Amino acid sequence: MTRSQRMMLAQTVFFCFVLLGLFLAPLAALDDARLLRNPDVCAGRIVFQYGGDLWTCSLAGGPAAQLTSHPGSESSPFFSPDGRWVAFSGQYDENMDVYVVPAAGGEPRRLTFHPGADQVTGWSADGRSVLFASTRASSNRYARIFRVPVEGGNPEEMPMPMAWLGSMSADGRLFAYTSLSNRQSFETWRRYRGGNAPFIWVLDLKTLAADKVPHPGSNDTFPRFSGEWVYFLSDRDRVMNLYRYSAGSHEVEPLTRFTGADVKSFGVRDGVVVFEREGRLHLLRDGAVTKLAVDVPSERVLARPGIVPAGELIFSAHLSPGGKRAVFEARGEIVTVPAEKGDIRNLTRTPASAEREPAWSPDGGSIAYFSDEPGEYALFIRDQKGERSPRVIALPEKAYYGAPLWSPDSKRIAFVDNRQAVYLADVASGKVGRVAVDPKFICVPEYSWSPDSQWLCYTRHGANNLRDLWLYRVADGKAFRLTDGMSDAFSPTFDRNGKFLYFAASTNLAHDMGWVDLSEYPHEPVANLYLAVLSAAEPSPLKAQSDEEE
């Protein structure tokens, strides 16, 4: 082979390697993944839930290996004491049951066969049994913890009369648990301080004597034994952080002091903690916290471009003023549809953001909607044909907004947020002002525009939890109470001439909070229609009449 041939061969091989690198680059470009949940740790490995499957990675993070891949959900993974097995709850046969799978990968083995849901909560100290919570022997209001042999057999009840999340000490003598089924119901109820705030018991399985972890009215949950310590989550400082409790000295020690986002779940072994916060895994070792970058290889099938039928994914709709078209919120896009002739128009085409609650302006020219395209929700106003870029009106708070209502002159838009505040946006200037805030977190305010666009009527709860009707004057921003607080008034609507205000009201019981006050369950509130005359010069159409001789 000549020198020129060798050089040509070397160049060809180099070019092939470059092409191979280009083809392999997308496969090697693994994400620093988010939404990693329910981690556990053992022998330098972490197991966690991601996308409904179980994965493992090293304590340093990095590439993850897939442990399960069934279309059903796999959750609550826990390493066995010797690290050889992972127990988890799986939906392999369309029901949530207990399974074990080799930690190095392999075929899962089913251990429970009950039609109810079985939630894995850990292992026995000797590693021969898997612990799980179930309502199979109780009502659905509370659960008990059972143990089922790894080799198969009938589950056996643990001695706790009510238990949900629990962990056994290494010597098998103590068991730490919460008595309320709080994990799913109250996992996102931040700073809850009601009667269902969970607390932790430490039970002696021989004497059945129980100690209560000091509980200052906070949410204390997810107890896990490691040595003499019971690690747990608590929001006693207003944010869910990691703590540990000494079963010997009965002292509580904080381990993290995060502000903002909560710690959601964790696993611990030999004092090494891996926990979930802000969708990422963190390692706590020797008092230092390290944020882990975990790369999860995936086909990303759901992220592939494609056409999705949106007919069953419509969440809100509004008619155009003339009824010739309708606008829909369909799978996060704003779409207009003709009554008979013409094409469907996708006005937004923003698959990476969510557009919500479109409202067609009374003059027919514009459509208003909310979008999180800027990062936080903003009010968008777009021409009804989608030919121009939308106007974006920034909103004053980071909140969830809804129910936009145009004024009849198409100059203003009223809307609410999830804090039950009513806002008014001026379309021309883009200014947004707050009209009122409902002081009672009971139900979202209702509102209606007067025909001349100068008044906005809205509902607002009084001190007795009954709704009053208020009138807001746009010209000077002053508000006036219309009803007297002796009835629960709602659903205000102006008549077309602006002379009257129609509304519904309940005077026999009025409260709509039967889920709060048990005394109201046997009663059925009755509402009637009422009419308010808005001008003193206007006679009432319902004025009593009597035929008299003259």
Give a verbal description of the structure.
This protein is mainly β and 550 residues long. The chain has two helices and 44 strands. A hairpin with a 2-residue loop joins strand 2 and strand 3 (53-58). The longest helix is centred in the N-terminal third of the chain and has 26 residues, at 3-28. The chain is elongated and about 100 Å long.
Strand runs, count: 44
Q: Kindly state the mean pLDDT as a whole number? A: 89
Shape annotation? elongated
Range of helix content: under 10%
Question: Could you tell me the radius of gyration in angstroms?
Answer: 31 Å
Largest sheet: 5 strands, mixed
Number of helices: 2
Kindly report the spatial arrangement of strands forming the biggest sheet.
1-2-3-4-25
Roughly how many Å apart are the termini? 132 Å
Strand-pairing-aware structural class? mainly beta
Low-confidence stretches: 1-29
Strand content: 35-45%
